[in-house]
Amino acid sequence: MNDVPSALFPSPEPLWQAASASVIGAESPWSLPGPWRLMLLGDGSPTRHLRLLTGHPAAVRLIAMEADSTMEGAPREVRELDHPLLRRQVWLECGGITLAWAESWWNQTEAEQHLQDRNLPIWLSLTQGRSELFREVDGLALVQSHWLEEGFQATGPFWSRHYRFFRQGRELTVIREVFSPRLEDWLGPAPRQALHLPS
After folding, report:
1. Roughly how many angstroms between the first and final C-alpha of the chain, as a whole number?
2. pTM of this prediction?
3. Into how many domains does the chain fold?
């Protein structure tokens, strides 16, 4: 068997995670400024938000898209997807500035159907033909990784969230996003330490 090294980065290490019930119930941490609460816990398209904030379209730089049998470091919601799975990782840039990193998990058949142009943002791929989607934000975390620090050219930790897309009640994909501190240029400063959420 030919063991080809993976081009995927390991999932970043969570230093702190909010309880899922608090995130799903939109019990946002009030010590996080309003613009950051909207960015991290809102159900809008992050690529559209990045374009609105910066005035530049979000460009996708594909890192890799490979089979994922281990699901190492994946959110627990990934277990609900049908196997075999693919994992896709990208950098998101606006005006030449890297503002986010994202990884997503897909059933292989769904990926072939919905990600025909792998350089398109997922939101654009899924809404071609104006198909209706439902997004549920499931997780909020602070994460750390040396390769994120290199990619963002900034010191961590970094704010992260993960969510699922559903169509007609069926789960399509699980997506994790990590945001660069450079977003503070548009959203204002954000604390980067564990937060207290309502219990």
Report:
1. 50
2. 0.85
3. 1
